[in-house]
């Protein structure tokens, strides 16, 4: 699948819709056609054959046909399924909009591919702490099992909004959104 025209061929197979919603990639089960030389870096940059894809509309279009099965990522059309590499998460949450405050607060994230998600029961926030460095890696679920890494600047905004609350008998700092509390780190004691 190293054919230079492969990415263009894949784009040509995406059904043209009425612009309403995302393609139903979860319903498509075409044959696996191999891996292509496409990678999404941790910073959200998409690469094809080692070169950044500079056309934002093309990246946006590819982002609508990505699917994760287990630990593997694929671009899916009704007739073709190709593997791609994702360094961390396929999206990056680059903007945060805050409405309200306290337990009624609503957090709206916008990703690098212009998806908008409101943190809540369907789009939870989670934070992984690296055991060696203690560095946090925060994520928000964008759709199905596809997450966005929350950009460092956006995470700092979350830290500014954080309140202390007891979780499992221990004090945690976290944020509220859509009536849900999301721990983002242990409270300094």
From TrEMBL:
Classification via Gene3D superfamilies: 2.20.70.10, duf1285 like domain, duf1285 protein
Residue ranges occupied by any DUF1285 domain in the UniProt entry: 23-89, 90-184
Bilayer-spanning residue ranges: none
Highest taxon of source: Bacteria
Name assigned to this protein: Proteophosphoglycan
Organism field: Ectopseudomonas guguanensis
């Amino acid at each position: 699948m190293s054919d230079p025209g492969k990415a263009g061929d894949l784009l040509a197979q995406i059904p043209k819709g009425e612009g309403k919603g995302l393609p139903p990639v979860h319903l498509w089960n075409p044959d696996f056609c191999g891996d292509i030389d496409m990678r999404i870096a941790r910073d959200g940059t998409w690469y094809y054959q080692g070169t950044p894809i500079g056309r934002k509309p093309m990246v946006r279009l590819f982002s609508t046909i990505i699917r994760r099965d287990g630990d593997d990522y694929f671009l899916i059309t009704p007739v073709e399924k190709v593997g791609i590499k994702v360094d961390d998460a396929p999206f990056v949450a680059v903007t945060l909009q805050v409405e309200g405050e306290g337990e009624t607060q609503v957090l709206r994230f916008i990703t690098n591919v212009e998806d908008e998600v409101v943190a809540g029961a369907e789009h939870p926030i989670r934070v992984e702490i690296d055991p060696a460095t203690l560095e946090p890696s925060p994520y928000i679920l964008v759709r199905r099992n596809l997450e966005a890494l929350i950009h460092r600047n956006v995470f700092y905004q979350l830290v500014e909004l954080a309140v202390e609350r007891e979780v499992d008998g221990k004090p945690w700092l976290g944020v509220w959104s859509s009536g849900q509390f999301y721990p983002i780190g242990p409270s300094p004691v």
